[in-house]
Amino acid sequence: MSLQAAFLSVILIWSTTPLAIKWSAQGISPSLAVFSRMAIGIVLCIVLLKLFRVAFPLHRKARLAYVAGGLSMFGAMALTYWSSQFVSSGMIAVLFGLSPLVTSLGAALWLKEEALTTSKWGGMLLGVLGLMLVFRGGIHFTEGAALGVCALLLAVVAQSWGLVWLKRIDDDSPPLATTFGILSVSLPLFFCVWWLVDGSIPQQVTQRAAVATLYLGTFGSVLGFALYYYLIKHMDAGRVALITLITPVLALLLGHALNAEPVLPQVWLGTASIVLGLCLHRWGEQWIRVANRKRGV
Fold it and tell me: Domain locations in the chain?
């Protein structure tokens, strides 16, 4: 697959994933929806591992990576699916747009790999401002939305700091093998949650919920991550970062058009502030260097 096709595919998958989560959790219980998604994903991983003859490492670093990623995925996805009962798909996408900022903060504190410069702090402050605007314009839509947004923020932290944990482990296993290992660790946890919270299988599942769950299991859990790793390996980081700028806005538009989700002006302003914060965080230092060069500093 060409880089352009992979880039567009990841944008499409990540933009539609929040809406698919919303739809899948409406047709069945959230705990069953996320367990079914991961079960489909792990079956697909097995097929792809066999088809492409990808090795599945079991050395110490690989095992640590599977555990770290599995715990992170469990925390992030369990909270996201639970919160989808109370918040819109657009809200899910916007708050997950904060992931690069939270990841950077975790990397600076835990890995000591990059300094928190003025532009990075400025980007984080804009992200916090955007979050406040999103709260103001979005939490009153449904009862329990405030708890849903808080759960989403915890999900963002779980996912972002899970990535930092994986970076600290520094395992070099094939991405597909890592995905399978992570799903293998998280799947029993999702099963336990479903068994304890719900434990029942509905007699009838809506077609929309079934299709959304199948879509998430194939594209959201496996192919999306595989394509993302492919982009990271073959494309410069600046272009890959554009994905996190595009997906929240596109997800808001999709949720409004396909699911009749109301979007108040404060939510749009908050989204714009978060996107601007991501730009400043990612490219602020380059902008400053270019400006200084032009001034002859």
Answer: 3-295
